[in-house]
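Good morning,

Attaching, inline, the backbone tokens for the sequence recovery test we're adding to the shared suite. The designed sequence is right after.
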């Protein structure tokens, strides 16, 4: 059964409400990390997970609030022991930026850590075409071209047992994200603002909570999870705005919660 566990959804740094963007999709035998925002490694460990459970990492885009902890994960993956290589997916246009990240933080005197990210994992590109079907721990997933200031991948995970979890990534309102979310059981959608101008929404590429509700409604999703709020204090109004245009259940992403397609929400351990 497909499950979504929330490690954090802050739009910036870790806060008292949890890590920056990071989620776990529970696969057939282990876990798939979606985004590695600051605090994600700590939240993962505090939730009681072992590194051996991790089967793949998928990073929607290389803004720091979604990817900065990749280096922390890579250090952990290679020291003091080198762990088995697992696939790490990023938008394929961005693979070279991982090399530059390695150049900054590689350790020349430790052979296993010269290039921590490239040595730790098998780096694979996301096509963002909505067609290419990938597999991670028994789940099929596809990537879609979200509208953002850097290559950004909306994601759609499908379980063979039924159940779809979709992620908007950071994005403006666009058709590929609608396709990623179509009829999803759980749609994790960014809601960065309550109000914003076109420079933020169309130029840079973000959504208001109301626009997240409109996307969820147009895509006929079953449950909407609002995330990436720029200010935790806007949560109550974000729920109101989204619910005005989306009739189904809507909630905020809360660190430590696990959400199942059956709509059962459980409060977990200590991601904080
Ligand atoms: Zn971003």
């Amino acid at each position: 059964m497909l499950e979504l566990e929330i490690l954090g959804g802050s739009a910036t740094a870790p806060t008292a409400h949890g890590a920056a963007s990071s989620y776990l999709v529970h696969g057939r035998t282990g876990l798939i990390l979606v985004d590695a925002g600051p605090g994600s490694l700590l939240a993962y460990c505090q939730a009681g997970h072992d590194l051996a459970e991790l089967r793949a990492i998928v990073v929607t885009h290389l803004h720091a609030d979604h990817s900065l902890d990749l280096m922390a994960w890579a250090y952990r993956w290679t020291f003091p022991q080198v762990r088995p290589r697992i696939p790490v997916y990023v938008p394929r246009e961005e693979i070279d930026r991982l090399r530059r990240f390695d150049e900054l933080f590689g350790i020349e005197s430790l052979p296993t850590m010269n290039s921590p990210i490239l040595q730790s994992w098998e780096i694979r590109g996301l096509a963002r075409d909505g067609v290419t079907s990938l597999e991670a721990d028994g789940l099929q997933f596809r990537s879609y071209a979200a509208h953002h200031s850097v290559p950004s991948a909306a994601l759609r995970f499908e379980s063979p047992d039924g159940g779809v979890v979709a992620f908007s990534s950071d994005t403006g309102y666009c058709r590929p994200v609608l396709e990623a979310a179509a009829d999803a059981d759980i749609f994790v959608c960014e809601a960065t603002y309550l109000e914003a101008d076109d420079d933020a929404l169309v130029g840079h590429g973000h959504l208001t909570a109301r626009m997240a509700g409109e996307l969820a409604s147009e895509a006929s999703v079953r449950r909407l999870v609002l995330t990436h709020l720029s200010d935790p204090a806007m949560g109550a109004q974000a729920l109101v705005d989204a619910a005005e245009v989306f009739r189904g259940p809507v909630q905020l992403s809360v660190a430590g919660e696990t959400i199942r397609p059956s709509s059962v929400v459980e409060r977990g351990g200590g991601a904080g």
